[in-house]
C-alpha cells in the first residue's frame, strides 16, 4: 500500500490536462502515444477538443530504485461536467492543479481547487505551456502562490507539448501525495466511482478499494441496493482492462459480474462481501443537483421504449443525467431530463444520436421553480405545464446562483452591463493581480441558462472565465408565457419568464416562428399569451390560388362569387388542418438574439 499513489488532474478548460496526461503515460512507458489526447476516447471529445468523461489509468514508475503504482484520473474542465470532477476527487488522495502559463488562474481553477481542499487532497501546483511565446510563468507563479499560500519552490514548471518538467511532476507525486490509508484485514469496503455498459458483458463498475481486499470469484453485495453477485472478473485499468486475481486496499480497478439492469448499479455505492459485510457505507459522496430541465421526445412515437433503454445506458456512463417520464399534447410521450447545463444537454443529445442511434426532439430548457399555493403548500415545478392555476398561486420562487467571473480589467464595464441586464446583483469585486479582477454576482439561474455564457465570451474576447454554484430560492414576479397556433397552445414552447421581459420575449418568439413555420393552405395565427391576455400576434398568410383567373370581363359579382367560395373552403380547411412545428423552431427559440 505504501507504493500506491492515487491522484487526479484538475484545471480550467483548455489548460492542457489531457496533453500533460499523454506525456505522463509516455514517460512511464505505459502506452505508446500515437496521437494527441489518448485518454479522450470518445469521437465527440476529439472533435470538440474537450474532455467529457473522467478517465482512470494505472502507470508504473520507478523512483529511487523502488517501483510505485500511480493511478491517474484525467478530469473534464467545463463547469457542466463538475460532477465528474467531484467523483474523481472523492477517489483520490492528491491532485495536480494545472494552470496555463499564458492565461493564469481562472474561475474553474479556483472552484475545482476548493472542491479538492474540501476533501483534504494534497495539491501539487503545475504551470503548463511554458514553451509558448506568450507564456508569463513568473506572474502566474505569483498568482498560484497567493491562491494556495505555498512557497515558490513547490510550483513545478512544465510543458505538455515538449515533455519538460514531466519527471519533476512524477517525483513530486511520489514524494508529496500520501499513500492510501486503510485496513487490509478489515471487511471489504470499495467505492464505485463510475460505470459503463457493455452489450456483451453487462455493466462494468469502476471502484476504489478503501478497506479489505477482493478476489476473483468472491460473492459480493452492493450496499445500498442490497443485491448480491459473483465477481466473475476483476482487474486494473490500463488503456484496456487487465484481469487480476486479487485487488488489495488502495487499488483502483473494475468488476464484471453479469449485471444487466442499470438500476442495480449506483455511482457512490459501496461494494462489500456477502459472508463478511462492512457495517456502514462509505460517505462523502454528494448527490447530483440538475440545474437545467428539458423534455426529450422521440421523433417516431414507437421509439419511446428504445429511448428509455438508451437513457438508462447513458445514465450509467453519465451519473449526472436524471430523467423521468412525461407526456406532451404536441409531442406525445417522452422524458423530462435534468442536466447540469446547456453544454451537458447538447452532449447528451449528440451521444443519444451517435451511440444509440436515437433521433430526438428537445424542448426549450428551463429551471425548477418553487411554487407556493394559497393553502400554504409548496411544490417544485420543472415544467411550465405543471404550474397550478394562477388563482391558486400565492407566490413563486426561482433559483439564484452565486457566480464568479474572472476577467481582464478592460472588460469590467460590458460584463457588468450584461449581468445587470440579466437581473444580477453585484456582491463584491476584488483584484487578483495586476490587471485581473474577480467579480461575484448573484444571478437568477433562469436568465443565464440559455445564452449568457456565449455572450460573456464574445464581449470579453474569450478572456473571461465563468463558474457558478447554487445559492438559494428567492421570490420573483414570474409569468407563464404560452404560444398559441390557431388558438391551440403548443405546450412544448411555453416558458416561465420574468414579467418585465414577457412582452418583448413573446413578440420575438412570434416573429421567429413566423419565419420558421412553413406556409399552409390556410392562415395560421401565431399568438403569445399570458393567461387569457394576448400580448403579441403574427399571421402566416395562406398559399392562394388565383381563382379569378378564368373570369374575363362580365359583372364583378362573378369574381366575388368565386372568392367567397374560396374563402369558405379555406375556413373549412382551417378547422381540420393541423400545424406541424419543425424541430428548428424549438432550437431557434433558445437563440433568439
Topology summary:
Layout: E1 4-11, H1 17-27, H2 43-48, E2 55-63, E3 66-74, H3 82-90, E4 94-100, H4 107-118, E5 122-128, H5 137-148, E6 156-157, H6 166-176, E7 189-198, E8 202-211, E9 214-215, E10 219-222, E11 228-230, E12 233-237, E13 241-244, E14 246-247, E15 252-256, E16 270-273, E17 292-298, H7 304-317, E18 322-328, E19 332-339, H8 342-356, E20 360-362, E21 369-373, E22 378-381, E23 393-408, H9 412-421, E24 425-433, E25 436-444, H10 445-448, H11 452-459, E26 465-476, E27 478-485, E28 488-489, E29 495-498, H12 499-516, E30 524-530, E31 533-540, H13 556-576, H14 583-590
Helix pairs in contact: 12-14
If you had to describe this structure to a student in words, what would you say it looks like?
Strands 11-10-16-7-8-15-12-13 form an 8-stranded antiparallel beta sheet. Strands 2-3-1-4-5-6 form a 6-stranded mixed beta sheet, with helices on both faces. By secondary structure, the protein is α+β, with helices and mostly antiparallel strands. The chain is globular, with a radius of gyration of 28 Å. Helix content is 27%, strand content 34%. The longest helix is centred in the last third of the chain and has 21 residues, at 556-576. It folds into 5 domains: 4-176, P-loop containing nucleotide triphosphate hydrolases (Rossmann fold, 3-Layer(aba) Sandwich), CATH 3.40.50; 189-273, Translation factors (Elongation Factor Tu (Ef-tu), domain 3), CATH 2.40.30.10; 292-365, Elongation Factor G (Translational Gtpase), domain 3 (Alpha-Beta Plaits, 2-Layer Sandwich); 370-476, Alpha-Beta Plaits (2-Layer Sandwich); 480-590, 2-Layer Sandwich (Alpha-Beta Plaits). The protein starts with a strand and ends with a helix.
Amino acid at each position: 500500500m505504501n507504493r500506491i499513489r492515487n491522484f487526479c488532474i484538475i484545471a480550467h478548460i483548455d489548460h492542457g490536462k489531457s496533453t500533460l496526461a499523454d506525456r505522463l503515460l509516455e514517460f512511464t512507458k505505459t502506452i505508446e502515444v500515437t496521437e494527441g489526447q489518448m485518454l479522450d476516447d470518445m469521437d465527440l471529445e476529439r472533435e470538440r477538443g474537450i474532455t467529457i468523461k473522467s478517465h482512470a489509468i494505472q502507470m508504473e514508475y520507478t523512483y529511487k530504485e523502488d517501483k510505485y503504482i500511480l493511478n491517474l484520473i484525467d478530469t473534464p474542465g467545463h463547469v457542466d461536467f463538475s460532477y465528474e470532477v467531484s467523483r474523481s476527487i472523492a477517489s483520490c488522495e492528491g491532485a495536480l492543479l494545472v494552470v496555463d502559463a499564458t492565461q493564469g488562474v481562472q474561475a474553474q481553477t479556483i472552484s475545482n481547487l476548493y472542491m479538492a481542499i474540501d476533501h483534504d487532497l494534497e495539491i501539487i501546483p503545475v504551470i503548463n505551456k511554458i514553451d509558448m511565446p506568450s507564456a508569463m510563468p513568473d506572474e502566474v507563479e505569483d498568482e498560484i502562490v497567493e491562491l494556495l499560500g505555498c512557497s515558490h519552490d513547490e510550483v513545478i514548471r512544465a510543458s505538455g507539448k515538449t515533455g519538460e518538467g514531466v519527471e519533476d511532476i512524477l517525483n513530486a507525486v511520489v514524494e508529496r501525495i500520501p499513500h492510501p490509508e486503510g485496513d487490509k484485514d478489515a471487511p471489504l469496503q470499495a467505492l464505485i466511482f463510475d460505470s459503463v455498459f457493455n452489450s456483451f458483458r453487462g455493466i462494468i463498475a469502476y471502484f476504489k478499494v478503501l478497506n479489505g481486499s477482493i478476489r476473483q470469484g468472491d460473492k459480493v453485495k452492493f450496499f445500498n441496493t442490497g443485491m448480491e453477485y459473483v465477481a466473475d472478473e476483476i482487474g486494473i485499468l490500463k488503456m484496456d482492462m487487465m484481469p487480476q486475481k486479487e485487488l488489495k486496499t488502495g487499488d483502483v480497478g473494475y468488476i464484471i459480474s453479469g449485471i444487466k439492469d442499470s438500476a442495480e448499479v449506483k455511482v457512490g455505492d459501496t461494494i462489500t462481501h456477502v459472508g463478511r459485510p462492512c457495517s456502514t457505507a462509505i460517505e462523502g459522496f454528494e448527490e447530483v443537483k440538475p440545474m437545467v430541465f428539458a423534455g426529450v421526445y422521440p421523433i417516431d412515437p414507437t421509439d419511446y421504449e428504445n429511448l428509455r433503454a438508451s437513457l438508462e445506458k447513458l445514465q450509467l456512463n453519465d451519473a449526472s443525467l436524471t430523467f423521468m417520464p412525461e407526456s406532451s399534447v404536441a409531442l406525445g410521450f417522452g422524458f423530462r431530463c435534468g442536466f447540469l447545463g446547456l453544454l451537458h444537454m447538447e452532449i447528451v443529445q449528440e451521444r443519444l444520436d451517435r451511440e444509440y442511434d436515437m433521433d430526438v426532439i428537445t424542448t426549450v430548457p428551463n429551471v425548477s421553480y418553487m411554487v407556493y399555493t394559497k393553502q400554504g403548500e409548496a411544490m417544485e415545478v420543472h415544467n411550465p405545464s405543471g404550474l397550478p392555476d394562477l388563482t391558486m398561486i400565492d407566490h413563486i420562487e426561482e433559483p439564484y446562483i452565486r457566480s464568479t467571473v474572472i476577467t481582464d480589467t478592460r472588460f469590467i464595464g460590458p460584463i457588468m452591463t450584461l449581468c445587470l441586464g440579466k437581473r444580477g446583483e453585484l456582491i463584491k469585486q476584488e483584484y487578483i493581480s495586476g490587471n485581473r479582477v474577480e467579480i461575484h454576482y448573484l444571478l437568477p439561474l433562469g436568465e443565464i441558462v440559455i445564452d449568457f455564457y456565449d455572450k460573456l465570451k464574445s464581449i470579453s474576447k474569450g478572456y473571461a472565465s465563468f463558474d457558478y454554484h447554487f445559492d438559494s430560492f428567492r421570490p420573483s414576479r414570474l409569468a407563464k408565457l404560452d404560444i398559441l397556433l390557431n388558438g391551440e397552445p403548443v405546450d412544448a414552447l411555453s416558458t416561465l419568464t420574468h414579467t418585465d421581459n414577457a412582452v418583448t420575449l413573446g413578440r420575438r418568439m412570434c416573429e421567429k416562428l413566423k419565419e420558421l413555420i412553413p406556409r399552409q393552405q390556410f392562415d395560421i395565427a401565431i399568438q403569445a399569451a399570458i393567461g387569457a391576455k394576448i400580448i403579441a400576434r403574427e399571421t402566416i398568410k395562406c398559399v392562394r390560388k388565383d381563382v379569378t383567373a378564368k373570369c374575363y370581363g362580365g359583372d364583378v359579382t362573378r369574381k366575388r362569387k368565386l372568392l367567397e367560395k374560396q374563402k369558405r373552403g379555406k375556413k373549412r380547411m382551417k378547422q381540420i388542418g393541423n400545424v406541424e412545428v419543425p424541430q428548428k423552431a424549438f432550437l431557434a427559440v433558445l437563440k433568439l438574439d
